[in-house]
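Q: What changes when adenosine-5'-diphosphate is included in the input?
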Amino acid sequence: MVDVSSTQPLSRPEALPDRQSDDLRDVAGAHRPIPKGKVLLWVVVLLFAADFARAVATNDNFGWPVVAEFFFNTTVLEGLWVTIWLAVVSMILGVMLGLPLAIARMSNDPLAKSISGLFVWFFRGTPLLVQLILWYNLSFLFPQISLSIPFGPSLAAWNANDLITPITAAIIGLALNEAAYMAEIIRGGLLSVERGQRETAEAFGMKPMRALWRVVIPQAMRSIVPPSGNQFISMIKATSLVSVIAMADLLYSVQSIYNRNFEVIPLLMVAVIWYLLIVSVLSAIQSRIERYYARGDQQRVVFDAPETVTTQEEAPL
Amino acid sequence: MTATTAQAPILRARNVHKAFGNNEVLKGIDMDIAPSEVVAILGPSGSGKSTLLRCINRLEEINKGFIEVDGEQIGYKLQGDRLVALSSGAIARQRSKMGMVFQSFNLFPHMTVLQNVIEAPVGVHGVKRREAIELATDLIAKVGLADKLNAYPRQLSGGQQQRVAIARALAVKPKILLFDEPTSALDPELVGEVLETMRGLAKQGLTMIVVTHEIGFAREAADRVIFMDGGHIVEQGKPEDILVNPQRERTREFLRRVL
Ligand SMILES: Nc1ncnc2c1ncn2[C@@H]1O[C@H](COP(=O)(O)OP(=O)(O)O)[C@@H](O)[C@H]1O
Ligand SMILES: [Mg+2]
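A: The predicted holo structure follows.
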């Protein structure tokens, strides 16, 4: 047996009434040694990063002067604009269609449920590229598009070739695909809200749609926003697929330039930097929206809580 | 506080049956509640007390019998001699006459205290914002939370949250207030503040149905005690009779366990 009292002299009673050592024990004055391994790791990682940045910056093959020359080129900017509005419009349409699809999928109505399920199954289950090409070639499948009473007479008819331009094909293709993904994201969000919330809203006489809009959806947003941001970023990049149907988006524009001047890498770098810039802005917007929907979650007591007590929520931005 | 039997009842339940699949939970409940009456419902866990409250405001649909609140049958309408199920909009309108307080508070966490309380008056009853805010501020002050108007529910203690929930239920000026074990989820030291608030309401002449395990509250604040077991009303009467001198063995056994 080890003699405890001799190996740990401080634990003996006579060592306790030492005022000065008690002061030293106050954790408020404690030192926190910086872990040496961590410092070393930082230095190594930063060195590698700096070296890589130098290698990229000084590498003539990237053609940075050419990048600078074409960064604000009109064709590029026009392509950038197409990419942005195409993504925004498709996302908005996707959400507008995704919400009813999600509600339909969660309803008790067997018809609504299966139609929604079928939609999601098809548009998630086939490659976006194929969907875009099919929409673009719709006139081949249905030369005439007509509005008619089912199995009855036609009310109006259009030539599919006039209706389906690269723009409409791109919007329809991207929006329907987006709707399928958004439907699932929204459904997950709605399911994440405690059942008692909806019941409480209904117990107070709110109609189902109002309960959904005022009580369930605002709470579901907490889990809907992060994957939607993700989804929107995918959408920005997915728009590059529309170049196959001759839609002049950002990628298509830089391609059209390097097909003439053969500066492939510099022009791709122009596109890469623009994509990264858009995504950075989006991420910043997303984190603001997330903070807005987390407002009921702060634990500390806030007396600077918004004085406005509007039932209409303020805009999140 | 004391109910006069001469008045027409504000709630009538006749032969109410409710089953979940094969599990028969309510087996023929008959109940009349007079205006301004305070009724405490006691009974062991699983006896169907919550289900009864949820049937009253149609969170559950009953299988047999009928429930009438303020002269209107809940969930159905007589057209000639045909009984027709109401639309969800009409049911929402019927529910808006009742206020409910839940065991787990169920405040809307994304809204401040004030927003919680004005939500139904503004959104369901069409009260003007300004008036709703005035009434809500008043009610919140009455439950002792005037300094928490702009706090979010998660920043409040359980007892405070439940008092907000009571203010929220009062804000719709309900014909009848339903409480489902309002103090069961609270830490013991917070039970008193909520019961105190409820005693105040009872004195003001509100019609209240309170499912509770607080025998003390039932004795002091209730006009009538109903004892339920196994989906039946086993016995009912004045608190001093039921709680002191129960006639049925099941009631006696239950009281022995909770007292
Ligand atoms: N939504 C439901 N689905 C199936 N069974 C339920 C449901 N709600 C309640 N029950 C059953 O009904 C019985 C009575 O429950 P409840 O009314 O909550 O009792 P109490 O409130 O008296 O404790 C229990 O056996 C419970 O399992
Ligand atoms: Mg219960």
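Observations recorded in class: The domain at 62-294 of chain A is CATH 1.10.3720.10 (MetI-like fold).
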